[in-house]
Amino acid sequence: MKKPILNLSNNEVGNVSLDASIFGIKTFPDIIHQYIRYQNAKSRQGSHKTKSRSEVNGRSKKPFSQKGTGNARQGSNKPPNFRGGAVSMGPVNRDYSFNLNKKEKKLAIKSALSTKVSEDKVLFIDEFKLKTFKTKELSKILKKFDYSSALFVYSHEGIDNNFKLASSNLPKVSIINEKGINVKDLITYDKIFIEEKCIDQISKRLS
Question: Which domains does the chain have, with CATH numbers?
């Protein structure tokens, strides 16, 4: 399958042959959903914590006699029913993450990429290079692409510093290294701009 290569002025400067086994597979919504669950679970902090009976301040000595006071018997002033006592069955530190095997991860990314390509939401750009670092200039350039949000995927060789600085203040615009490409970003952003040098790197990673 062939797709045009564009420059940042939205003019066609060539074309590229895409691997249909990566950019042209059918969509698997269940795999995409599972990958997003995996990403969300992995990003959860899990640092919620309440004190147990062994951690709250207080004495483990009986607060009053077993009999004769008219009160219910108590063995300590640390139980939940006492003011300043422990929390019953409260949250503790935990890790919410779970594992996905490599085949599932690759299939989810390929499925998300293929969906975007089929919707013509993936644009292949020859290079991300600017003569100036001004955000205003980049904003004018990107208006030609008619996007609501954009993700720019650059190669492992790095990105032009002017482009990096200019894009940092644009709302709903992000840049990411091709090694960090993931399902959540592919689904979240309206249009995906992929640098030409990344195509072979992404194909090699997902093959």
Answer: 2-44+96-206 (3.40.1370.10)
